[in-house]
Each structure stands twice: as structure tokens, then as C-alpha cells.
Amino acid sequence: MPAEAATWHYFVAAAIFALLGAIGHVCRAVFNLLPDRITDRPLLDLPLSSGYNLPDLLFGTEYDDNGYYRLDSLKNFRISVMLSTAGGLLVMLFSPGASGAVAWMIDSGLSALWNLFLYRLHETGLF
């Protein structure tokens, strides 16, 4: 396992974290059975609701009229992607083993994809 990650590892990791944030946004909106907002008062929803928390209050997450997280809100999408990307990169920067582990996973994934490409190319019989 490498001791540290190169700069390009951070760019690839940022793209992966952004993709995970987008997936998290869709999952939160689609698979939410109960509404996040129960009342019209945000401070009362914090202790009562299990889906509404302090980052939702601070960043101004948007909800529909029934209290559900809005899938079609670009603001919600941006908040989810930015928090996921910033959180992942901060963990990589301040945790000594995390950046090396992420770099190893990226390198292993790229190596596996390249080997799969070469195998498929060989199986076609062209080369």
C-alpha cells in the first residue's frame, strides 16, 4: 500500500465522492417512507423527526408540502454532493491511512479494469 496519495488520486476520489453524494441524494428522496418535516417549526422538528437534522437546518434543505425531501430540487442535490465531496476529501487529508487506502483502491480498480479490457480484447481473437 502506498504511503501517500498523488494529486490525481484526490481528483479521482473527489469525482467518486461526488457520485456517491448524488446516489445518496436520490436514495434519500426515493426510499424515504416517513416525512422528514412533521411541523412547520424547524427547531421542533429536530428532536421529533428522525430524518431532519442540524445540517438540514443550517444549509436550508428543501421539502415539499407534505414534509418529504424533494428529489427535483437542485439545491438539495448541490448540498448532498458538496457535503459528500468535502467530507470525503477532509477525511483523506486529515486521516493518515485513509489517503493511502483510497489511492490503493483507485489503483487496484484501474488495474482491474485494464486487465478486463485486455482479456476481452484477447477473447475477441483480433489480437
Descriptive account of the structure:
With about 130 residues, the chain is an all-alpha fold. Helix content is about 70%, strand content about 0%. It is built from 5 helices and no strands. Helix 4 (about 75-95) packs across helix 5 (about 95-125). The radius of gyration is 20 Å and the shape is elongated. About 15% of the residues are buried. The mean pLDDT is about 90.
Précis, in short:
By secondary structure, the protein is mainly alpha-helical.
Can you tell me the overall shape?
A: elongated
Based on secondary structure, the structural category is mainly alpha
- Number of extended strands: 0
Q: What composes the largest sheet?
A: none
Helix content: 55-70%
**Span between termini:** 33 Å
Mean pLDDT: 89
- Residues in β-strands, percent: under 5%
What is Rg?
20 Å
Uncertain residue segments? none
Number of helices: 5
Order of helices and strands: HHHHH
Main traits of this protein?
single chain; mainly alpha; elongated
Outline the secondary-structure elements:
Layout: H1 7-30, H2 42-48, H3 54-59, H4 74-94, H5 96-124
